[in-house]
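User: Last request for today: this protein with zinc ion, please.
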Amino acid sequence: MTENNENTQPKQYVTTTLPYVNADPHIGFAFEITQADAYARFKRLTGHEGFFNMGADEHGEKIWRNAQAEGRDVQAYVDHYAKQFDKLKAKLNASYNNFIRTTDSDHKKAAQEFWRRCDDNGDIYKKEYEGLYCVGCEMFVTEKDLDANGRCPDHPDRKPEAISEENYFFRFSHYEDALLSLYEDQPDFVVPDRRFNEIKQFVQDGLEDFSISRKKDKLPWGVPVPGDDDQGMYVWFDALVNYISTLGWPENQKQFTEFWRQGNPVQFAGKDQIRQQAAMWQAMLMSAGLPNTNQIFLHGFINVDGQKMSKSIGNVVNPYDLVDEFGTDVVRYYLLRHIHPDEDSNFTLDKLTEAYNGSLANGLGNTVSRIASMYSSYDVDVAFDQEAAMQDEDLEILTEHMNNFRFDQAMDYIWQEVSHLDAFITDREPYKGIKSDDEDDVREAKEAVAYLALRLFDIAEMLKPFMPETSEEIQDILKEGRDPEPLFERKE
Ligand SMILES: [Zn+2]
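Assistant: Here's the final one, the structure of the complex with zinc ion:
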């Protein structure tokens, strides 16, 4: 399996999608950040130098119209919302390397250079177009995308708008075979499998060229199309380029080569993004003569109290409130262990509270208290490895789960090891042996506690990617020989 050798490990690139900044972040995006962050932290911990990208998608019709409707300057409008997403990464303790905004001037230049390369490759042409546009998706839609009422299934409250104008088009149709052979060559290109099958089917059914620009007099908010003052780039074309502009492409070839070309670029996205990420963006990369992503992981959606989150129902869960109530690591814990990584899941506060009391206040918190209390008072001295590393067997098991994006199974393994410690305490009863008049009993009690302390230290090491602050706290308690306050107070 994996060898922990810095010299031979490929560099790891990880990115979330860029949320569209027209509303405050909800729990669904906090879920994506937390998964990507745990993955990035795990890779770094196991010897891969990492680059973790996050950011904000700030162009497009929806943003333009919302800013107009609120009578606000568009740049001020996107600045406000970008800040909300920017704050979220601190709230969730995301170990990002760059937060890219698509209104950054370097990004705009990169998007223009990307356009030029696709154009040089003969993949961009202009034509008069009439079509239906879903402003909710920021996508042109065809009849087959619409439901029986002629509405986009994701935006049934918005009628798709008929648009007729002269636009630039990208020769998506040209890339059917190339995409299918990419999927053939990389059997884990999209995880989970059922989503991978969905995109294979979509490409097999035939691709239609898509519009990649809008007339500026209709939509003045976008990256200018190189060499045509009347046209601005279609928001997706510009936004997708962020995944490499964040690395400094095209200027910073060194970083691009290390993390994208020769590294292991992995993208995290919601299941509704499959066409954009696994087909459109990949065809665009091929057209620009650049390597494809290595892997795309698609997470499921979070429903709240059994319903899709929506402003009109009023059931949108705000991740800031959750963190204020429970703390960063508790929210990370819940999202990673109790929300299924790739299927739709239901979120309720009751379930979160139940998991908190059961697995954190009891469970981990209680085990830490018991062991630290014995360790601090039994005159046992253990040399904890200052350059801590995971035990081989732990590393092997966690690596397999993480490479399959099974955050829940990785954490189940850690909690299984926590309960082994509880069973060990019950079995050995060191709290009795330590009081014995028999020297052997006392020695055995001390040996048992030394083992418990060492194994708890290992468990804390495994927790690093998932609950970084808790992990550090447990290791500090042990190193300092402290009898600590409870890590997690019970909640009623
Ligand atoms: Zn839509």
